[in-house]
């Protein structure tokens, strides 16, 4: 099919030879493209929007192909959530609780611990009645033991693939969004569990933690002088082994038990010798538990950075561990076999993921527990190779080769060994009846959910199949051919064929013209369908109005024909007018036309014709959910009305606004500027009037606007007057205008004892007027009230006027002051008098101001200035990175929270020349004094201070937006983003002062707006993967503070 524009041209080609009054039904049907050939599937690749008979590519392909039942629903198979046979149950990760899930699975597979917990009395017995469980409420465990009981029962007999541990996590008060130290969690929870169970009467329950996990060692100190031994007994639940510098687990154990020498300042006080003596100290293992937990200290404190880091070094360990060489009392059974390996994926100590490889004590098979997912290892063998390849190592250390029965890992952080016994483990850990009832109830809910989901899935499939057959059959009947037809929008048909969205009623209002028929321009978004299909659509979905053959609008087609013919004629008339404009106008037969209108008359004519054509293109409401904004259309019309029409550019300004308001444009007056208009011939004007019949007409003899002439004359007189005033003032005060030979307070001139003061702002405004008297109004008042407080006192000291306030004032010679009193209205006289005593050094002269200084207001001003510098909420400071005390300009990481040197204050627009200032009375404002408050003065002074003290950012410098109440640590985080320098590598200073207190605010540290802070980095972070560590350590570590693990 031809492109859309070609179809548009072909539909209206007949208008070139047919006059509007000759339009017939055949022409109307051609304009609406009724008889265009329909497209064929396979030939047409996409839908042709210019052809209303093209019904290809509107979404029908998904219904005409093979049926895929999965496309009829978005419900997963509920059986996917069912526990697999001979498999374990997973645990949901609630955000960052994978470390909790790993330990729960390890403890669950400790059969002795599980059995003891089942024996623990529970309040669940009160919940379970003699005839079953209360149906009206869910069971809520009250203690940690009850939570573990319920979790273990679900893990043992649940039909679900995974269960939710949120009740247990909530009971402990853990933050589900923050990953914690897994080893610390293990210690604290075991301590909490032991304390909870210690209150039980049953010794098998009360002592289970000690029996399973508790061992004993002694700190033995031997005096080298007398040989006396001192023992300190201690219990342990895990051995914390240093792995730094080691490759094998046995080496780590040996170092743990290694003898330590106590010498020098670290000598031991021997009670036998009654003095400090050299001694040796070591740990002796006295007894080992049934379950031996070995904590590999992968997460260590880095003294250089002051934060934790992970040691990603390989450690080798065997599946069989003989502990006899390490215990004090030989002869016992100390052979252990590996039962669990806890893994931390990731290179950072502050992020990553925890999983567990645990051996089933009943079958001897290994399983990988990864939250919801449980994977069985093949061949009853532990397989860690996959885990070790997941994360890239910082170092290029090769994985060492492991022999049979040994393994190597750089991610294992805890090894669990079980004491080998000849007896087989008890395989009959039965869930108590009261817990089994709860599990059965949960399983019943799960089965009900599965049935419900399966039914919903089946209903969706059945509904989809029925819809498929309906659409397939109805789509074949869509083409209209020569039978009666109707129009339906393409958008509605696409939504009907889109299963993901519900089908709404048909809405054709947006396609109607002003005559409530189908607009010809909307045919590109409409499709012609058979009356049979339309009847079915309207009966099932409703809507309207129905667009039958009677909806073809003859009025719109006739109007479009007229406009198209005018557009074609416009090209010929454009050439004719151009030729007529070349000829000179003779006599008084010409007409005035604006030059701007002549340059754009063709475009204006086209726009006017398009507007006439578009008047019929109005919308009545919405189409399939899209509504028109009436307010926007009103605003657009308003803007169009404000634009000048043809020949309105030579109307006088004041009459133009009046007559545009009342729509009497033909009665407007001619402007006085002949440069904006041109005389054209009567023939040219006649052609132009055909396109702009309402344009203002000005024959060549038409007089210009009398009011404009008067205003022009007055303007010329005022301009001459202003030039004369400016010239007189410039002649009277030449040095002040040229800023030459100005007095200075710090170097008082010898030829005078009096100097007068005016505002620097007054001088600047006066100079603007003198330079451009035609554009600016004269400055008539000095306006010294801006320099005084509300009490009439001076706001400056003599010392401040020689330094920081010198840019706010201008010094005037006495002779200049006499002239200024004649030229300007002086509201307040401000002067400085020098008084010299006889026989006194001139440098010790006194200076007296009139009026005198107001101490209270001066102090208030200074306090306000200091407060503004210390209590800012958003200000810009600058950071320079230095190397060897030299500023370095180089590119770094992309800046975050960084702005350009232009702050909000820089964005203030300067006042245009001649704009009135409230502090100065100008010629049109009279001579009345204007009062200024203390607050207004402070604001005025701030403005001047900003202009004079603003820092200029140099290339390569970083500008940061900060507030006075943010801490130095927060600033370091911003600097880290800007320069890729970690906070602990930053050395910051300002004006030679070191900034070291991370908790102090920028206001207390003296960091004010526009400050420049020097940054010296110890070493840049080369490993950008470790930036995650930096982000984590910037926030204070709370650990398990406030949780149930610490008794809260």
UniProtKB/TrEMBL annotation:
MF-aspect GO terms: cysteine-type deubiquitinase activity; cysteine-type endopeptidase activity
UniProt xrefs under CDD domains: Peptidase_C19L, Ubl_USP48
Regions of compositional bias (Basic and acidic residues) in chain numbering: 908-919
Chain coiled-coil ranges: none
Catalytic activity: Thiol-dependent hydrolysis of ester, thioester, amide, peptide and isopeptide bonds formed by the C-terminal Gly of ubiquitin (a 76-residue protein attached to proteins as an intracellular targeting signal)
E.C. code: 3.4.19.12
Region of interest: Disordered: 612-640, 892-932
Listed PROSITE patterns: DUSP (PS51283), UBIQUITIN_2 (PS50053), USP_2 (PS00973), USP_3 (PS50235)
Any Gene Ontology CC annotation: mitochondrion
Biased composition (Polar residues): 920-932
Residue ranges annotated for the Ubiquitin-like domain, each copy included: 942-1015
The entry's keywords: Cytoplasm, Hydrolase, Nucleus, Protease, Repeat, Thiol protease, Ubl conjugation pathway
Any Gene Ontology biological process: protein deubiquitination
Annotated localization: Cytoplasm; Nucleus
Record-annotated USP domain positions: 89-420
Segments forming domain DUSP: 459-553
Family per similarity comment: Belongs to the peptidase C19 family.
Subunit-level organization: Interacts with TRAF2 and RELA. Interacts with GPS1.
UniProt name for this protein: Ubiquitin carboxyl-terminal hydrolase 48
Organism annotation: Otolemur garnettii
Lineage start: Eukaryota, Metazoa, Chordata, Craniata, Vertebrata
